[in-house]
């Protein structure tokens, strides 16, 4: 059965949906009849969800209730310099932002703190609902566009948002590539024999991309990429906002409810108006607590002065792409303007100066080009990959509704909306993963009935699973492209007409990597696997001459980074990671050969195939999100401490301690792999450290209290042995219950009692204890036990001189002990090891 795919331009400021209807991409208006939905999510006074223009409508009455520009934060870490700059520039009435549990970002929507992925899923869910109601078709799959210069974690975050909204995401498509699709389909038929070098200049609301592409009939290749993921029209709004508040409004009172929202809205309107008129008049009222007003003017020259540095930077990035691809402006046939900010006259003027006015395109609507291209891509895709992480099955026909290997659904997930926080959840979920609200009994809305009308004869009796009309036997519209020559609507996945053989004006693109992608090695360097500009999808590539040197590590980590720094992996951006537990086949300090193959699929996801030593080949899809490096290292160190403690003292641990350490081992391993725990990672690590330290101290002082009680009685001590025995029993009881507060109290009590024994005496006690447990060479062991027996005898007869001499002898012999250290092993940095060169 053919299933329709929705094309989505998930924009920073506006989002647009498109589907292939009758072989051509068609914009789907939202429930308010708008061609674009403002990328805004908010709640009203009673907590009801508001999306798009309805959310913006309450921003001045309910400051802090509306989230905009969330795309600039998706897949980013709170500590990133760019993120901190973006947060500093947010308007005063923007919702609060904080660092999330895993080091990312959270924004407050109403009374709930949500991640950018969850907020984007709410928006995508609304886009899907409106599109289905408009088209009369269910959309179970989607093509979602992303800026070409997004990092791998950002790509992954957008795909995660799509899946959370209930889609199977066929492609996360770079926005310039989508725009070139739209340009190719709109080209004239008489241009069929022309190959065209196209430069896509994409200046959107939150990002800037520049791409060099080669297109022609049945051909599409991406040659070069550049950009800035934190530069766009939102920055121009912020510049105008700052100018108005700091220079034009002077000392006026701006503390009234909604003042910040009104000034921000005025800045946005002014930016748009100045694209058409040389002067924009601004009226702001009311202002301040007393309801004042202000009227002023901003000229186009004023605005261009504010943004000239940013526009100059976009031109520098454009020239950089030309240099990297060995091209000049004269080699470019067409410059496509994409994104609302390309309407700014300064942008067009400078591009015309660089490339020539005749090359700068104005034929494709810059606001709709990306969305139209997403719809076209939906008509070109013929296969998909299984969305399940462990399953590596690809090239599955679109007609399948489940993976043939693992039975994972290929039609997305039926979703419900949480009534409290509004985040979508899979039907059947009993508790909201975001806010823990009770979702029991909620059911997904009934799917929209698919249209089955034949476009040839008008028959309405066709089954939704039919591919041809039951009356006229003509093919039904399945979402493919319309032939520019014979007008036939083709099946999805075809790049040439199945009727007349004519090539379409676009094709499945060969994408390129924006930056070097490489494997982090154990010495901190990077083995570049896919240099910048590598076309993908790729075949498998071998990484030669690798080995694993265990050095007591418990896990082998494949970490990939993107960036130009081959001498220091830490200077690059995280790309993706997979952690493989090391078995006992590699002994401590052992070395095994590592065979590793890597490939990139059409969705820019990296796949690994590897074999350690003589083991079997393993496969993995690279996880493109991870915890912060510092948290990962801390988790690895703690995991090493836990492993060491259990290995050294396993027989002495209580059942409750074994259970806690097993749970900690699993959770720390999860954290190392970058997988979510559903709780604050900083808080978890603090609790884990406290647990490990408390258990380690309790075990140590349980032993010391037992030794002190027994040996103290042997040396004739009167009070202290009984008190130490009580402390030992209290520690045992606390450890049996894993009562951490009681363990800390009992440990401190035992430590205090132990300190009442002079140093020379307790060292003699420990020497006798270790000798009894075989922790000396045999000759030394006999000497220690003999000296201890003589010390007991000297004590019983009150011979102080002999006692002193025997204490000195026992203290000297104690230095020969082979007892295990009661603390963690000290080696490299953590329990994880990276591949190294042979």
From TrEMBL:
Keywords: ATP-binding, Chaperone, Nucleotide-binding, Phosphoprotein, Stress response. InterPro entries: ATPase_NBD, Heat_shock_70_CS, HSP70_peptide-bd_sf, Hsp_70_fam, Multihaem_cyt_sf. SUPFAM superfamilies: Actin-like ATPase domain, Multiheme cytochromes. Residues 816-838 are annotated as: Disordered. Pfam families: HSP70 (PF00012). Belongs to the heat shock protein 70 family. PANTHER family: HEAT SHOCK PROTEIN 70KDA. This is Hsp70 family protein. It comes from Streptomyces longisporoflavus.
């Amino acid at each position: 059965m053919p299933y329709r795919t929705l094309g989505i331009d998930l924009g920073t400021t506006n989002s647009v949906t498109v589907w292939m209807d009758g072989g051509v991409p068609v914009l789907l208006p939202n429930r308010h009849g708008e061609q674009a939905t403002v990328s805004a999510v908010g709640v009203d006074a009673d907590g009801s969800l508001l999306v798009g223009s309805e959310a913006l409508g309450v921003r001045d009455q309910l400051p802090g209730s509306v989230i905009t520009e969330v795309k600039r934060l998706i897949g980013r870490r709170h500590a990133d310099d760019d993120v901190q700059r973006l947060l500093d520039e947010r308007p005063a009435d923007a919702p609060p932002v904080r660092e999330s549990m895993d080091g990312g970002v959270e924004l407050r929507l109403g009374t709930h703190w949500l991640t950018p992925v969850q907020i984007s899923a709410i928006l995508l869910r609304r886009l899907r609902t409106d599109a289905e109601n408009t088209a009369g078709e269910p959309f179970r799959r989607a093509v979602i566009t992303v800026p070409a210069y997004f990092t791998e974690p950002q790509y992954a975050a957008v795909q995660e948002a799509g899946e959370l909204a209930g889609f199977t995401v066929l492609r996360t498509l770079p926005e310039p590539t989508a725009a070139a699709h739209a340009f190719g389909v709109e080209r004239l038929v008489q241009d069929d024999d022309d190959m065209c070098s196209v430069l896509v200049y994409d200046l959107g609301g939150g990002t800037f991309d520049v791409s060099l592409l080669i297109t022609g009939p049945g051909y599409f290749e991406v040659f070069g990429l550049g950009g800035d993921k934190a530069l766009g029209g939102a920055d121009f709004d912020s510049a105008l906002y700052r100018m108005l508040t700091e220079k034009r409004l002077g000392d006026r009172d701006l503390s009234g409810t909604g003042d910040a929202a009104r000034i921000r809205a005025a800045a946005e309107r002014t930016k748009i108006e100045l694209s058409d008129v040389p002067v924009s008049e601004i009226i702001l009222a009311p202002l301040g607590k007393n309801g004042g007003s202000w009227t002023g003017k901003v000229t186009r020259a004023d605005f261009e002065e504010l943004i000239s540095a940013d526009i100059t930077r976009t031109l520098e990035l454009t020239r950089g792409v030309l240099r990297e691809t060995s091209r000049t402006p004269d080699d470019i046939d067409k410059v496509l303007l994409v994104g609302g900010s390309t309407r700014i006259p300064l942008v067009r003027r400078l591009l015309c100066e660089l490339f020539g006015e005749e090359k700068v395109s104005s034929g494709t609507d810059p606001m709709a080009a990306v969305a139209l291209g997403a719809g076209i891509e939906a008509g070109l895709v013929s296969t998909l990959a299984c969305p399940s992480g462990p399953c590596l099955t690809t090239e599955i026909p679109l007609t399948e509704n489940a993976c043939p290997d693992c039975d994972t659904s290929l039609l997305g997930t039926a979703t419900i909306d949480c009534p409290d926080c509004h985040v979508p959840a899979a039907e059947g979920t009993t508790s909201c993963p975001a806010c823990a609200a009770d979702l029991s009994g909620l059911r997904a809305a009934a799917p929209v009935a698919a249209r089955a009308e034949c476009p040839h004869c008008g028959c309405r009796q066709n089954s939704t699973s039919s591919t041809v009309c039951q009356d006229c036997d003509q093919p039904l519209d399945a979402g493919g492209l319309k032939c520019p020559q014979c007008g036939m609507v083709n099946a999805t996945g075809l790049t040439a007409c199945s009727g007349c053989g004519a090539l379409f004006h676009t094709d499945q693109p060969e994408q390129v990597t924006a930056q070097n992608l490489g494997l982090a090695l154990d010495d901190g360097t990077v083995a570049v696997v896919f240099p910048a500009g590598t076309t993908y999808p790729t075949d498998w590539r071998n990484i030669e001459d690798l080995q694993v040197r265990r050095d007591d590590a418990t896990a082998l980590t494949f970490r990939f980074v993107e960036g130009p720094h081959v001498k220091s992996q830490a200077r690059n951006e995280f790309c993706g990671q997979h952690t493989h537990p090391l078995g006992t086949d590699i002994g401590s300090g052992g070395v095994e050969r590592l065979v590793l193959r890597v490939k990139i699929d059409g969705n820019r996801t990296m796949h690994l195939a590897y074999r350690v030593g003589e083991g079997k080949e393993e496969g993995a899809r690279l996880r493109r999100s991870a915890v912060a490096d510092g948290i990962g290292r801390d988790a690895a160190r703690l995991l090493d401490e836990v492993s060491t403690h259990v290995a050294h003292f396993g027989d002495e641990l209580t059942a409750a301690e074994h259970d806690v350490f097993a749970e900690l081992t699993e959770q720390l391993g999860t954290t190392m792999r970058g997988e979510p725990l559903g709780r604050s990672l900083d808080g978890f690590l603090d609790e884990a450290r406290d647990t490990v330290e408390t258990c380690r101290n309790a075990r140590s002082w349980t032993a010391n209290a037992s030794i002190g009680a027994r040996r103290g009685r042997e040396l004739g001590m009167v009070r202290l042995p009984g008190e130490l025995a009580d402390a030992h029993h209290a520690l045992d009881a606390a450890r049996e219950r894993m009562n951490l507060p009681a363990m800390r109290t009992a440990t401190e009590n035992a430590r205090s009692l132990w300190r009442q024994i002079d140093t020379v005496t307790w060292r003699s006690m420990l020497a006798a204890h270790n000798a009894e447990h075989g922790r000396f060479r045999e000759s030394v062991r006999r000497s220690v036990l003999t000296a201890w027996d003589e010390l007991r005898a000297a004590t019983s007869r009150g011979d102080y001189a002999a006692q002193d001499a025997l204490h000195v002898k026992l203290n000297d012999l104690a230095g020969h002990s082979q007892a295990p250290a009661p603390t963690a092993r000290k080696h490299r940095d953590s329990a994880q090891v990276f591949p190294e060169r042979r």
